[in-house]
Structures are given as C-alpha cells and as structure tokens.
Amino acid sequence: MNHNSNDPIIERLDLAHTKYSKATEEKLKEIMKSAKPLQPNQVDIMHLTLKKSENGDLVSTVLIRNGTQRILHFQSLPLCITEKVSGMVVAKGTFSLKNLTVQPFTSKPATFVFPASSLYMEPIDLSSCRVTYPDSPSN
To answer: Which InterPro entries match (predicted)?
Structure first.
C-alpha cells in the first residue's frame, strides 16, 4: 500500500498472534475508529490501559501505530508512565522484545509490565497517568 499524499493515514488493526477476546477485539476496533488519524510518516504509542496487578506491578497496554511505508522492527522499547498534569515520571523501563514487528499503515496492541521495583512513587492514581515513549510530546 502506498500513501503519497498529505492526507491522514487510515490504518488497519493487526491482531495476528494475539489472544484477545472477541469483546476486546471489538473494543480495539472502536478505539481505532475514534483515534486521531496518523499523519504520513508518523509513528505513535497510544496509551490504552494501565492497571495494577496483585503483586504491585503496573500492567500497560498500548497501541503501536505505524503511519510509515516501512515495516517497523522493535528489539527493545523504552517506555515511561507519567502523570498527565505534572508530567512527573512514575515509572520507566526499557523492554526487550522478541522481534515485535508493525507493518506499514498498521496499529498493533502490545502489553508491557512495569515491575513494582521500577516505581518512583507510591501511591499512584492510575487514572491520572499515561504511558508514553520518553521525550515524546503530550498525547
């Protein structure tokens, strides 16, 4: 698929090799429909969910959005959890990945676990936090 204009990108959702329920798949499709369109050559990490596990780890699901004409290959991905208002970093980590690939003009969900030991502050109001790529502009 080629995209040569300055029109926003229409992406497809890649759920291959995932184990989401049909309800979750439908919810992801709805999120995609309402998401701000990517611009040509834009790559974006979209925060979807952030939950605390029983052992205190923070479990985050994001949508990796590829608005480029090339396949993106990730071997590692630095992410941080920040408070939306203050911008204060709550946790950060670099995640080693086994060849996470995102096809051109495609979005792919991915889940990352921030160990409790990586948290910089407690308690945390998860509703006021988001997951971002370090040094990315506000979402």
So the answer is: SLAP_dom
Fold of the CATH domain 12-132:
Immunoglobulin-like (2.60.40)
133 contacts 78 by C-beta, under 8 angstroms: yes
Question: What is the token pair recorded at 109?
Answer: 């969900």
Phi, psi of 13 (to 5 degrees): -100, 125
pLDDT of residue 101: 93
Task: Write the burial class of residue 138 (CB in 10 Å: 0-12 exposed, 13-18 middle, 19+ buried).
Answer: exposed
> In 3-state terms, what secondary structure has residue 96?
strand
At residue 138, the pLDDT reads 45
Q: List the structure tokens of 51.
A: 């939950």
Alpha-carbon distance 134 to 10, whole Å?
25
Q: Residues 100-120: pLDDT tens digits? A: 899 999 999 999 999 999 999
CA distance 132 to 136: 7
